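Worked example 2:
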Amino acid sequence: MSKVLPLLILVFLTNLSYASEPKETLAAFYAALAAGDQAKATELLAPDVTIYESGYVERTRAEYAWHHLPEDIAFAKTSVRTVLQHSQQIDGKLAMIWEETATTARIKGKAVKILGTETALLQKSGDTWLITHLHWSSRKSK
């Protein structure tokens, strides 16, 4: 039963078109990655999203979908991401989320634990929160 509940939660979050809270939108984005649902993941990003990762920049949803999203999906499908710390601040139609994460995966046959930090900015349009900026940073655990 303990393994079934997280899967049910992922299925539920993946089926949300848009979440009513910024943190739900971000969680739905990661659920879509883990489920391999490229359409749902891109739907949660603003068209002009900017994504910073490892010194690289992707400046639109289309650029991310074409370039890095398939790699992110492949990794998310074979890893487990755990949020260690989460903070959220909402100011009107803008929201900021800060997360610290631990991700376990097998890379080239070797078990690794990756510690990550993330900043996400979201903007509300009507009842919809869209991710407008992501900044990811990570390092291998010692």
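DSSP finds five helices and six strands in the chain. The first strand starts at residue 45 and ends at 53.
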